[in-house]
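Protein modeling request. Please complete all fields; requests missing the sequence field cannot be processed.
Requester role: graduate student
Desired output: 3D structure, C-alpha cell encoding
Chains: 1
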Amino acid sequence: MLVSILAIGSLSACGGPSALSFDGPEGASVRDNYQLSTEIRIGEVQVAAESDLLIDWSDFTTDLRGRPIDDLQITELSMVRFDQDKGSVLDGLNRNYVRQADAQLSYLFNPTGDQTTARIADFDIAGNPLIPREDLVAVDPTEQNWLLTLFDTSSGRRDALTSKFVDLVQPAPNTAVTLTDGCAELDLEVDLHTAPPMTVQGGRDDYTLEWSAIESDVFGNAFDPLDGDELFLAHFDVQDVTRIEAVFARLDTEADELYRLSVHGVTSADLMQAEDDAGRSFGGFTTDGIWLVGIACTGCLNPAPLWIVVLDVT
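Delivered output (314 residues):
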C-alpha cells in the first residue's frame, strides 16, 4: 500500500504526461502516521434542574488549545445530552470516537455580535426550542450527562473552544453556567519524528496527493474519508521538527504558511487547489523549513489531525 504524492511535469517527447511519483513507506497506515496521545479534561458545575440557565462566557479569553479568543469567533454553542457517565464521554473524546448515536439530544444557539451571555431556553433543535421544565430534569450522572461547548464555525470548521459538564440536580441554588479559561484543558504528547518522512521534489507547479491506502487514523480508528474531510499543507520556518511538536495544539496559528482544501468523502486531491485564509493558492513545496501534509476532521471535538506526514523536500 502506498500513499503517494505525484509531481506532474511537462509533456514527454512522445506526447504523454511525464509523471514523477514520490511514495511514502509501504503500508501507510497508523504505524507510518505520526504518533499522538491526548488527554482532554473538562470541568463541571451543578445547577438547578428545570431552570432557564444563564450561560456566561464574558470572561473567556483563551481556548483549550492555548489560542487567544481575540483571534477567534464564538459563533455557536451546543448543549448535548449523552446517555453515558462522564468517564465514557471523556474516553470517547480522547479516542475521537464520539458518534452521533452517543449524543441523544443536541441543542444549538448562535450568538450575534459581541454577545457573551445567553439563556438556555434560547437553544433549539431545528427550530424546536429547549424547554427547561421538560428537557432539563434532574439526572443520575452515572447514566446521563449534559455537555456545554463553545465553537468557532466562522471558517466552515466546527472548532471546539471549551466545554463544561452541566450537572442537573434538585434542589440547587445555582442557575448559571460560567465558562472561563481552564474549563476544558488539552494535553498532547506528539511524535512527528519517528515515522519516516515522505520524499517529494520541490519547485514543481503541480502536485497530487492520493491517500486511499490509509487504513487507520492516529487514534487507531478505521480511517473514514467522510470524517477526514480537510487536507492541509503547513510550512514552518524551522529546521527541527521538535519545535513543531512543542506548538502542535496550535498548528493553525503557529504555521508560517497554511493551506487547506475540502476533501469530504474523497481520497485524492490536486494540492494546487489548496488555499490559505486570504484566498492565496498553494504555490508548491520549497526546500526551506519543514512542510507537513495532513488530513483533519473539521467536525470532531478532538482537534488533533487524523493523519500527518513530514515531507523531505529535495
